[in-house]
Amino acid sequence: MSRDTHPPTDARRRAAGGGQGRRGRRGRALEGAERGPGAKQPGNGGGARSPRVSRMASAPTSKYNSHSLENESVKRTSRDGVNRDLSETVPRLPGETRITDKEVIYICPFNGPIKGRVYITNYRLYLRSLETDSALILDVPLGVISRIEKMGGATSRGENSYGLDITCKDMRNLRFALKQEGHSRRDMFDILTRYAFPLAHSLPIFAFLNEEKFNVDGWTVYNPVEEYRRQGLPNHHWRITFINKCYELCDTYPALLVVPYRASDDDLRRVATFRSRNRIPVLSWIHPENKTVIVRCSQPLVGMSGKRNKDDEKYLDVIRETNRQISKLTIYDARPNVNAVANKATGGGYESDDAYHNAELFFLDIHNIHVMRESLKKVKDIVYPNVEESHWLSSLESTHWLEHIKLVLTGAIQVADKVSSGKSSVLVHCSDGWDRTAQLTSLAMLMLDSFYRSIEGFEILVQKEWISFGHKFASRIGHGDKNHADADRSPIFLQFIDCVWQMSKQFPTAFEFNERFLITILDHLYSCRFGTFLYNCESARERQKVTERTVSLWSLINSNKDKFKNPFYTKEINRVLYPVASMRHLELWVNYYIRWNPRIKQQQPNPVEQRYVELLALRDEYIQRLEELQLAGSAKLAEPSTSPAGPSPMMPHVHTHF
Amino acid sequence: MEFSDLIRTGRAQAKLLRGPEAPPLRGTLCLTGHHLLLSPGPQATSELWLLLLRSVDSIEKRVASDSGTITLRCKDLRVLQLEIEGVEASLDIARSIEALSSLESVITSFPFFYRPKGLRLGDAWHFHPPERYYKRVARETNAWRLSEVNEDFSVCPSYPRAVIVPRSVDDGALARSARFRQGGRFPVLSYHHAPSGTVLVRSSQPLTGPQKRRCAEDEELLRAVLLGARPGARGFIVDTRSSQAAKQARMTGGGTEAKAAYPGWKRLHRPLERGQPLQESFVRLVEACGDLQQSTDSWLRRLEGCCWLAHVKEALSTACLAAQGMEREGACILVHGAEGTDSTLLVTSLAQLILDPLSRTMAGFQELVEREWIQAGHPFQLRCAHSAFSHARSKHEAPTFLLFLDCVWQLGRQFPLSLEFGEGLLLALFEHAYASPFGTFLCNSEKERCLCEVRTRTHSLWSGLNQPKERRKLRNPLYAPNPLAIWPSVELQSLRLWQGLFLRWIRPPEPSEVAWEKVWQIVTDKEKTKLSQPTVSASEPQL
């Protein structure tokens, strides 16, 4: 098969390159494209240029029109924590078993067909190029697969038209061409289907087979009692209740809830009858100073007849009264007004003015899971495999993805602003209170509470507002499930992470974690290597003993935290972050959504990360020296400013990190 | 002429609104020949507020019964509002500002009066003479020489006194070649790429005309360019016009190099937007950015409609083409459009940034701007007379230099470690190109600057910028010297709107300066640790 047949877009781009002909088809040395000689090994700095650097200097890869970054971009898919030996072995996790291997042709949308050998285990699909001039490696956890289709039939003519087309949940498709003889396609199809969709075959999800060991146990990161204690709870107005210990009050809520002190457990039971799926209003977050709160729940069961429930009305008033200064409770209904009205037809609805005198209700116009799913589908259409070129910005606009991001952020800003101003406590709900509600409460908390902007704080936020409060990860992601067209699937959590990324762009020094941290979370949202995102709610996780039988994603991250740190993080207490949610200040997360396309990929990650790591190390060193100096200083009772090596005026700033 | 003739009312009570972020300022408004001052009352704590009148791009006045409102739209895209007591006073002040901000005379402009403390006249003007760059070229090759054929600016009024040309071509031949090129801009060296031994050359279009004239000396000159690289070297002529436009230019006396006349050279057409359409694109973009009322869901479509990012993409990819021709194909490159003073310079300067690590240093970049824009005869005075707001538009304005700065910003975004300077320098250059107390961007050519004695009677921007107190504002704290070429991704998905410039006055939540200040702290803390250790830091490349 000829490597010179490029897809038409490639040919076009080559023409754009001047039509001057030969150029390295597939590039080599890629890293180093932006690195100086001194930047890498600190020990080797300044001196003579290493031969490696000069070699790279002579063959840097043309970025603007090369099709050569495949290696690089594919290597980046590698999952962390796996020791990849670039010899003949295939990476394997403890507990991972090899099922089969096969020679295939990988139809790379960027570089054309590449002959390779694919290895399938019960965890991953791994492909290594068999061609000498390509070091291509694909390493894809089977959990990422949403759909496997056969392409071409026995009568198919044409090169590479017979094989498998695999749709992934992470914005890409993989195509493999196979030989038509000997059931080779059927075998591969059957094996992939079996291990990518274990639920349909009564097989366990890989997380239950994974025997990885980490020196940190991620399951201990979140302890609800400790987290509420950090918030200063319980206090005079709020108590911790175990009424849901056995998930009897609400099977999709966590066991431990924080409710108004003045509401008895019986009150809670009565309120539960009036809230969709018994998801009663409970506390998410309390402001440390003004004591206003963010409370979350599901919609009230008002229905067509406009039912009322005295207990619910009273309960909301009790919430309002936990803070004496407040005359009105603010209710944010995340839905568009019309949807909320329409929900009455199915028994739901919203709090009317008549029934809830001391509350003000606002709609936040955020659309439902189906709209979000379709929107992301449109994003994929314009970025994979080919990026829309002629009308990029208007195509992007017509996906409405950024507009949805804007609405979610705007809603969260309103929640945060209300609470931070101390004018009102806030109650947030949508329909069931596990999608848009989780987005709004968690983003508002991220804006309000700098603790959640640290690595562990963010893990706690996700663990609390998303996992424990029953965001239906299993349904939204479809772990191990073959039903790719399931209407329950929706990128709600991805949208949340995107919002976090937008915030981190606008406040480059406010978050302890970096972009890789967010991408790693998203990768393992699908991978099924960890138990963190499995199942729909805490009760199901408890039944399956997930914490005993699987490893937590936070184990992986926390045992290797440096990789995920933002070197520019400066810890600030009590600073409320209000991102600008105007379209002008939002951008498409190219490094995530278009990361598979070698032409688009920014050259940032590697060298910049390297420099960041350097900075981090040096900063730590500096702080250590400072501490030594301070120790010495305090021993001598000398004024630090008189010492020539004493801390600079900026010191207090840096010092606050620790 | 006396400025006082133009000042109808010298002072008035006024309130100044500076956008949503800054608090309004009240005080006495004073008008001088070059400035608008607002002196707050004695009880106020804030300092004197000062605006260079030259930086006012458009002025709009509205009067009420006993006061007037003046809206000043500045060349740096700021919008200011003055509420002035007294109808008569406000009208007078508006008219005075109008008259004073649009004075044509160079030698009565502010740079000729600006005498800041701590700077000496004449400083920094000697930083980047053509001789200096020639020294570097001479170390790398001896195929080129410094010619003073243009000593008295008679051969080419828009070239500097000294230019670098092939050693084998004598001054007489240069003069004859100059007569064959528009505006006398015969091919001269722009950049010597030492690793490949190839060169980047620039000129204006040949005056072939409808009769397809030829010029033996011009052909000889380009032959010498190839021979100077190596025997058998090829060349590409990057014409920044479409082939259609280049053909049409023959009708008005211009044209392109005929294939047969220039063996070894191959012509490529890469049309770049220039002049009026580019200015309109800029105006539309600024309008879109400032229009906060528009329904937000059409922002991206509107951004696309401005085409500004498409121009950025075209400029960068043409520069990549030129750079690639040298670095990859080992070919010499000649760039020209029509006059050779706009898109030509855009391409040659960007190609150098991509290829040449020295041009990415603080000093090297200033040298590049000085050599490839100012001395190369980009007509700053004509191009930057007005910015995006002015209604009085002559046809000479074009934001070519701004487009260059935007492209550099895109490079810096994609290679955050490789440029020694930061966004601050680019913003400063944008501001100063349009209105400045320094003389650097005055006039349209070296000849005019000589006539006006700019070098002896005004301060150089470089001496202003290179003061230690500016360091943090202008430098990139993450810079690490990178000896390689930096090939940007020019796909639209990789390009961004330069928010720091176009949305500068519609602030993001955390001004980038605040973020960078924190980064600086971390980095300088780091340097302190480094200094206290006996390690050798990587030496910075010297020019």
TrEMBL record, chain A:
<dbReference type="InterPro" id="IPR000387">
    <property type="entry name" value="Tyr_Pase_dom"/>
</dbReference>
<keyword id="KW-0472">Membrane</keyword>
<feature type="region of interest" description="Disordered">
    <location>
        <begin position="1"/>
        <end position="89"/>
    </location>
</feature>
<comment type="subunit">
    <text>Heterodimer with MTMR12. Interacts with KMT2A/MLL1 (via SET domain). Interacts with DES in skeletal muscle but not in cardiac muscle. Interacts with SPEG.</text>
</comment>
<dbReference type="InterPro" id="IPR004182">
    <property type="entry name" value="GRAM"/>
</dbReference>
<keyword id="KW-1003">Cell membrane</keyword>
<comment type="similarity">
    <text>Belongs to the protein-tyrosine phosphatase family. Non-receptor class myotubularin subfamily.</text>
</comment>
<dbReference type="InterPro" id="IPR003595">
    <property type="entry name" value="Tyr_Pase_cat"/>
</dbReference>
<dbReference type="Pfam" id="PF06602">
    <property type="entry name" value="Myotub-related"/>
</dbReference>
<feature type="region of interest" description="Disordered">
    <location>
        <begin position="634"/>
        <end position="658"/>
    </location>
</feature>
<comment type="function">
    <text>Lipid phosphatase which dephosphorylates phosphatidylinositol 3-monophosphate (PI3P) and phosphatidylinositol 3,5-bisphosphate (PI(3,5)P2). Has also been shown to dephosphorylate phosphotyrosine- and phosphoserine-containing peptides. Negatively regulates EGFR degradation through regulation of EGFR trafficking from the late endosome to the lysosome. Plays a role in vacuolar formation and morphology. Regulates desmin intermediate filament assembly and architecture. Plays a role in mitochondrial morphology and positioning. Required for skeletal muscle maintenance but not for myogenesis.</text>
</comment>
<dbReference type="Pfam" id="PF02893">
    <property type="entry name" value="GRAM"/>
</dbReference>
<feature type="domain" description="Myotubularin phosphatase">
    <location>
        <begin position="218"/>
        <end position="593"/>
    </location>
</feature>
<dbReference type="InterPro" id="IPR016130">
    <property type="entry name" value="Tyr_Pase_AS"/>
</dbReference>
<protein>
    <recommendedName>
        <fullName>Myotubularin</fullName>
        <ecNumber>3.1.3.95</ecNumber>
    </recommendedName>
</protein>
<keyword id="KW-0378">Hydrolase</keyword>
<dbReference type="InterPro" id="IPR010569">
    <property type="entry name" value="Myotubularin-like_Pase_dom"/>
</dbReference>
<dbReference type="InterPro" id="IPR029021">
    <property type="entry name" value="Prot-tyrosine_phosphatase-like"/>
</dbReference>
<feature type="compositionally biased region" description="Polar residues">
    <location>
        <begin position="59"/>
        <end position="68"/>
    </location>
</feature>
<keyword id="KW-0966">Cell projection</keyword>
<keyword id="KW-0967">Endosome</keyword>
<keyword id="KW-0904">Protein phosphatase</keyword>
UniProtKB/TrEMBL annotation, chain B:
<dbReference type="Pfam" id="PF21098">
    <property type="entry name" value="PH-GRAM_MTMR6-like"/>
</dbReference>
<dbReference type="InterPro" id="IPR029021">
    <property type="entry name" value="Prot-tyrosine_phosphatase-like"/>
</dbReference>
<dbReference type="InterPro" id="IPR048994">
    <property type="entry name" value="PH-GRAM_MTMR6-9"/>
</dbReference>
<dbReference type="InterPro" id="IPR011993">
    <property type="entry name" value="PH-like_dom_sf"/>
</dbReference>
<dbReference type="InterPro" id="IPR010569">
    <property type="entry name" value="Myotubularin-like_Pase_dom"/>
</dbReference>
<feature type="domain" description="Myotubularin phosphatase">
    <location>
        <begin position="124"/>
        <end position="502"/>
    </location>
</feature>
<protein>
    <recommendedName>
        <fullName>Myotubularin phosphatase domain-containing protein</fullName>
    </recommendedName>
</protein>
<comment type="similarity">
    <text>Belongs to the protein-tyrosine phosphatase family. Non-receptor class myotubularin subfamily.</text>
</comment>
<dbReference type="Pfam" id="PF06602">
    <property type="entry name" value="Myotub-related"/>
</dbReference>
<dbReference type="InterPro" id="IPR030564">
    <property type="entry name" value="Myotubularin"/>
</dbReference>
